[in-house]
Amino acid sequence: MSNLYTLLQTRFPEDGSHAFATLRDGTVISYAGVEEASARYANLLVLLEVQPGDRVAIQAPKSIDMLMLYLGCLRTGAVFLPLNPAYTAGELDYFMRDSQPALFVCDPAQEESIRALANAAGVGRVETLGDAGSGTLAALAGKCEADFATINCDDDNLAAILYTSGTTGRSKGAMLSHGNLASNAFTLRDYWRFNSDDTLLHALPIFHTHGLFVATNVTLASGASMIFHSAFDVEDVLEALPRATAMMGVPTFYIRLLKEPRFTEELVAHMRLFISGSAPLSADIHRAFSERTGHSILERYGMTETNMNTSNPYDGDRIAGTVGLPLPGVSIRIADPETGVVLPQGEIGVIEIAGPNVFQGYWQMPEKTAAEFRGDYFISGDLGLIDARGYVSIVGRAKDLIISGGYNIYPAEVENALDELSQVRESAVIGVPHPDMGEGIIAVVVPAVSGFSDGAALKAALADSLARFKQPRVIAFVEELPKNTMGKVQKTVLREEFATTFEPH
Ligand code: MCA
Ligand code: AMP
């Protein structure tokens, strides 16, 4: 096996002028440009003495340069470690100390505060990268050679670490190898029939699996093009759709598009594929979408730890409410969550996954890694079943997790932050249906002093410790939390009580 970059490179179009990405302002980055820019970043990493296996962490605005840095890391054997720009200083401090990056790249606007954090955490070097090629890192890369001999590596050499939260509230770095990413990229390209005539509308963030690996690696593995937007903006998407052939999104993208009368069958007549994932796509949205556009959204299922596991078929029935069939090379079984006994077809249990897509473990957490595997199978924490035709459906979660607009929020982390506040005796954080984000976050709080009900004060206090997307939208005060005889909070009772909080009135 070889380096993921080398494998992708074999599929780059022969004509180097073929567009890889077109930006909002019309700038085109060609495949020859990709080769050159990624070589410059690779040379820069060598110059900065970043060794194979060293982490290169980045918390910066979405940009093509960030993707070129990702490819530069692949080419040198460094480990790319992207972080959500929404993370607060407290969250970053943990990521820096845990991953000990050789290089931390930040938004130029945050340089001063990041340098202070990095010094305290023992991170050796900080550079900046803004959007549109600004920042010290881009300037340094611009002075480097545009040729680089990509290093050879083994399947299990690390390519990236992506942090994912856990039920204990402590984030874990999922280690993904060149082999993990390569297997998934080529499988998805074939399964979804991507080729060099495709233009993918890319409006996802690039610090997560969906926008970074699924969207970008599949594009590169097909020699295809992308229309590269800095974020999802419904107006920009409506404007760009007529030039695209495929789109990947979280359900919120499709919910928002359906709200627009200008989103019509004619507008998307030439599109070949709409893909959804990261959160459940309701059967209602699936149906409304096909009635409006004539397109059946292709829903797939993945995780940070595993890349993509299942997909509805390209040809054949894309069944609303299911996540489709195991991808070629991926094994899926349903097990009893308590005993681990594999269950017969049709029964509900925890979804377990094995295959070349499954990660190498959590960064410096061998016990946590061991606890989440049964043999070769990774225990997803999602509850599901496999029907007679082999389609997988997700019916619930064994893990206490909220998914809002495609971002995961572990209630334990929010509860810990709330419980640290002097005004809070205890708290329970739940997700309930939200018409735009899928789920919205509610904190149910027992105040330290009876009668206290200043939700705004608690929200303000959380702003320093939790990224905005993890902060509860609603804080409800109660005298006590419903608990079972073991003293465990009955979240199902709370979810029922608050079920209609975000419904439009
Ligand atoms: C933004 N906000 C959010 C979210 N996003 N709050 C909760 N959940 C969110 N997802 C905050 C903003 O900071 C803002 O705060 C307020 O909510 C309203 O923002 P709004 O303008 O409505 O949101 P937006 O900026 O338009 O973003 C919504 C979004 C975005 C477009 C859905 O969150 C997004 O791009 N999501 C994609 C996430 C993704 O790529 N997930 C893949 C993970 P304020 O109140 O301060 O204004 S990979 C994965 O899950 C696996 C592997 C898989 O299968 O793919
Ligand atoms: P993450 O930790 O961001 O990788 O999120 C992975 C989780 O997202 C999975 O364990 C599922 O709970 C959820 N997920 C991803 N795709 C889907 C989907 N199509 N339907 C339902 N849940 C999904």
Written description of the protein model:
By secondary structure, this protein is of the alpha/beta class. The chain has three domains: 4-191, Rossmann fold (3-Layer(aba) Sandwich); 232-397, ANL, N-terminal domain (Rossmann fold, 3-Layer(aba) Sandwich); 402-497, ANL, C-terminal domain (GMP Synthetase, Chain A, domain 3), CATH 3.30.300.30. Helix content is 30%, strand content 25%. The protein contains 15 helices and 25 strands. The chain has a nine-stranded mixed β-sheet. Strands 16, 17, 18, 19 and 20 form a five-stranded antiparallel β-sheet that branches. The protein is globular and about 65 Å long. The termini are far apart. It binds methylmalonyl-coenzyme A (MCA) and adenosine monophosphate (AMP). Residues 204-205, 208-211, 232, 250, 252, 277-278, 302-304, 404-407, 437, 468-469 line the site of methylmalonyl-coenzyme A (MCA).
Provide keyphrases for this structure.
binds adenosine monophosphate, 30% helix, binds methylmalonyl-coenzyme A, five-stranded antiparallel β-sheet, nine-stranded mixed β-sheet, 25 strands, Rossmann fold, 3 domains
Summarize the structure.
The chain has three domains: 4-191, ANL, N-terminal domain (Rossmann fold); 232-397, Rossmann fold; 402-497, ANL, C-terminal domain (GMP Synthetase, Chain A, domain 3, 2-Layer Sandwich). It is 30% helix and 25% strand. It has helices at 4-9, 31-47, 64-76, 89-99, 111-121, 136-142, 178-191, 209-222, 234-240, 251-258, 283-293, 366-371, 411-419, 455-462, 491-497; strands spanning 19-23, 28-30, 55-59, 79-82, 103-106, 126-128, 158-164, 172-177, 199-202, 225-228, 246-249, 273-276, 298-303, 307-311, 325-326, 331-335, 349-354, 373-374, 377-386, 392-397, 402-404, 407-409, 424-434, 438-447, 474-477.
